[in-house]
Predict the 3D structure of the following.
Amino acid sequence: PWSGDSVRQMSCTPQEFRRSLVQAFGDAVSETPNGLLLAGDEATLHFALSEQQPLRIAALQLSALRVEISVSAGDDAAARRLLSQVDRATLRGGG
């Protein structure tokens, strides 16, 4: 499907990203040498994680994480549904 061409920039650490996935998907999340694997019912996604230089705004410092998403199993529609669930699970509040 769209393997390899989906990249997200997130304001979290790899540990925070993993924690969000585990809270939402439990044992379906496993670690790989360079990231995380999420095995859904109809698709499997791999998240290659790369910490970036933190973003500084005055005294505020925000974590920066590059997340490259690839499809390991499943068709395009199933992978997009699973990724939509991931997006909801990793949302943060703002105000």
Q: What stands out?
A: The mean pLDDT is 84.
